[in-house]
Prior knowledge:
homodimer; alpha/beta; Rossmann fold; four-stranded parallel sheet
Amino acid sequence: MSFARSAVCVKCGAEFEATPTVTTCKKCGGILDIKYDYEGIKKALTPAKLKDRREQTMWRYMEFLPVDPDVVGRINKLKVGCSPLYKVDRLAEKLGLGSLWVKDDGINPTASLKDRASAMAVVKATEAGMTTIACSSTGNAASSLAGNAAAAGYKTYIFVPERAPKGKVSQLMIFGANVISVEGNYEETFKLSAEAIDRFGWYNRNAAINPYLMEGKKTVGLEIAEQLDFKMPDYIAISVGDGCTIGGLWKGLKDLHAAGFIDRLPRIISVQSTGCYPINRAVMENKPWEPMEENTIADSIAVGVPRNPDKAMNAIRESNGICVNVTDEEILAAMKLLGGYGIFGEPAGVTGTAGLKKACEEGLIPKGASVVSVVTGNGLKDTANAIKAAGEPMKLRPELPLLIEAFKKAGKPLE
Amino acid sequence: MSFARSAVCVKCGAEFEATPTVTTCKKCGGILDIKYDYEGIKKALTPAKLKDRREQTMWRYMEFLPVDPDVVGRINKLKVGCSPLYKVDRLAEKLGLGSLWVKDDGINPTASLKDRASAMAVVKATEAGMTTIACSSTGNAASSLAGNAAAAGYKTYIFVPERAPKGKVSQLMIFGANVISVEGNYEETFKLSAEAIDRFGWYNRNAAINPYLMEGKKTVGLEIAEQLDFKMPDYIAISVGDGCTIGGLWKGLKDLHAAGFIDRLPRIISVQSTGCYPINRAVMENKPWEPMEENTIADSIAVGVPRNPDKAMNAIRESNGICVNVTDEEILAAMKLLGGYGIFGEPAGVTGTAGLKKACEEGLIPKGASVVSVVTGNGLKDTANAIKAAGEPMKLRPELPLLIEAFKKAGKPLE
């Protein structure tokens, strides 16, 4: 049994039954939010009970999830979630922070945080009696859907615009997805996917339409809290694109708060690119959001028309959060910075850390604060930008004296 | 305290003290094997005790590892090990097997099984009082060393031949390794690394010289056993290059057997490429091994002069194992095959599965057998070959009737 009780519109407050196929508000078109019986959760689960649980995936937080546990148990699933939270003291010191943890979500099966949403989509499709799932995307949403659906033995139809990079398409093809390369732009691709989903009755995994995806993503927040023994940090930094991920993180924290697992909420640091920051701009200028160009190497957050701006802006405002925008150079520098601690993130994956660094340097965060920075995707997804970030190795003929000389010249003698 | 007792030469049987910097046999040059006080392990640890342990990394098997637990506790480590073991019933049925599990070790922090060896190298370097580690490699050994050492805050010197692919070098640079691109072939690169290691007294992470690397790798065998509740399968299939990984897997299983955790040992299926199979050839023809050319797309196992043939051949012979060689086409087909279950492996990573499929088709394995297949590296490490394996997506203009028509023509109508 599930503690989910209803789906409530974030815009007009209308309440709907939380059926597996519920999408957006029938009254105003707003996106829905899943509400729970928090008193029921409180009675069923405690931090101590959780500690003894052996399940090492996102499904360990079953009471907080809008699913039928029997259905979850029946499905062949990838091992999503329970990603590491690394305490990086040397970096904390460098940034003048009291403590800093990095949540490396690039360690998920298809190498991004989106696995949490796609794993949820597979479960909800099953509850709805459907075994075909569709979405339009070229990025992490698509690869995570293709991988998680493949594990379950389900069919996927994935619509990509023709300009989608070959490497990313190949990952979808490897997972056995039916990939349709559409001779048109993203808008036309999305429209064709919507028509086909309507016509054939496939399960819809388009973000910001399906409210359950965010319930999957929120597990990143549940994990951070549990990994810190439910003592929350002052801030959590995260990159923001269409707004679903920051919204999911915040939902997870609020659910924990409502169920009495944590006694305070952290402030969210929302990080976007200086080349594309419609959500941060709206919050900073206290105006409705407006579309922007998409000028950044961080492709996963190059979203000029965010699909989930309401939940994202709520997360920043409700948490008394901070908005930071970073340049591509700052993003590349953050790739290299985190690499120095053994963490390899894709550009959008490290954007949160780039913003955190900037916030520290600009005094937006007090000295000694405690912070978690979420890395949302693996650097192996984008080796072209890794090459840009990494610099060139030293080149020399195979002679020891040349090696010694070269390092001396470079100002870092061998030792 | 550790239960490791000595280091014994696999060739001449000479016994040495298991100091942190022990390398090869001082008498005959043979590679050493770490021996334990198995009675001591038996008293200290039981399967039931293990089950209650919360540590979710390779270090949960502390009693079986040649390390000082206090040292392990002190180091900043990546989350290595405890990778998923997926039961893939649909694939078992397809291959005529009774049961089949896939161990996905590409999920490790730097995306390969080699993280287990490098994590061990970092601990042993620490025990030796050293914080600089070196190796020569272009592949997974190098990236795993760079990543795991970075987490610990240690320096690395990594020697690569100039032909090393830029993408792989960039990963090393991201992790902050001192990368030396040597204008010469692999032999010259290795020689320069050996000279520099001697001269500067760095910790040596060259495989098949340092006996502890295999003790790290063996944890993949410990995990498989624990994940199967210590009921061993009939076979374990794994790809073989320089021989260290198959040797490590076998060592883990033998250690478990010696300590009474399992009551039988599986047969090992050793899979190499038809373009490079010196170890399998030696076993199949019952002759000493001889060098071979390196003609395969599976770069991580393209090893014409294996560095650890003795332990590899022992693993196959002692386990009454099976040798299978597969073509590049069969390797690419295995990438696509495993992708259909949500598992994305690099070419060398899926070679074990390619060999298992062939062994089933050729009747080398009885119908109904139980098998584990180990995937040793993540497909994101080699997207160029993923593109080869995956095929092309369907291309069309954004019109629903065209979509329906195209799928009908392809013989798989939409549903």
